[in-house]
Amino acid sequence: MIPLGLYMTDLPKEQIALQFKLYQLHKSIGITILLLSVIRVLWRVFNRPPPLPDGMPAWERVGAKISHYGFYFLILAVPFVGWGMVSTEKPNVPTVLFSHIYWPHIAFFHDSANRMGWNEFFDKSHSILAWTIVALLVLHIGAALKHHFFERDDVLARMVPFVRPMGGKL
């Protein structure tokens, strides 16, 4: 989504038709992510995650919990903030999911007297939160690889189906 977002916002004015299509695609994928994320969070609420490996230091346990809660927050916040941004934009362009389903603006923000202020807030927040996901993902991948290659536990194997635990510490 980030490469698409960067590409579509940097297109020259001469490619307005392509830009419009890419914005609609970006919004369609974003709303789909939001809906799937709600399902994912509900799944997690009703299904406990597997326990962390025995012997994992307390600071790693805390880090794992913070990163997981961070991901849950971000997978909901980024698309919601994007939806808020679309709802407060000056040109009132409708969102049409995958060229077929009209998606409403968020009325509270769309009808707000401070619509432009909200738009500025959502615009900045959307970018910051999206890049925060990237940073958290890099951290998460690094931690999983550390567990796999240095701790030799099953943390990575629990996340990736085709990876087998290395077994035993070095």
Structural features, described:
It is built from six helices and two strands. It has one domain. The model has no long low-confidence stretch (mean pLDDT 92). Helix 1 (2-9) packs antiparallel against helix 2, helix 2 crosses helix 3 and helix 3 packs antiparallel against helix 5. It starts with a helix and ends in an 11-residue tail after the last helix. With 170 residues, it is mainly α.
> Number of domains in the coordinates?
1
Question: Biggest β-sheet: count, sense, barrel?
Answer: 2 strands, antiparallel
Total helical segments: 6
Structural class estimated from helices and strands: mainly alpha
Rounded Rg: 20 Å
pLDDT averaged residue by residue: 92
Unreliable residue stretches: none
Helix-strand sequence? HHHEEHHH
Q: Distance between the terminal alpha carbons, to the nearest Å?
A: 39 Å
- What gross morphology would you assign? elongated
Strand proportion: under 5%
Based on DSSP secondary structure assignment, what is the total number of beta strands?
A: 2
**What percentage of residues falls in helices of 4 or more residues?**
55-70%
Supply database-style keywords:
68% helix, 4% strand, 2 strands, single chain, elongated, 170 residues, two-stranded antiparallel ribbon, mainly alpha
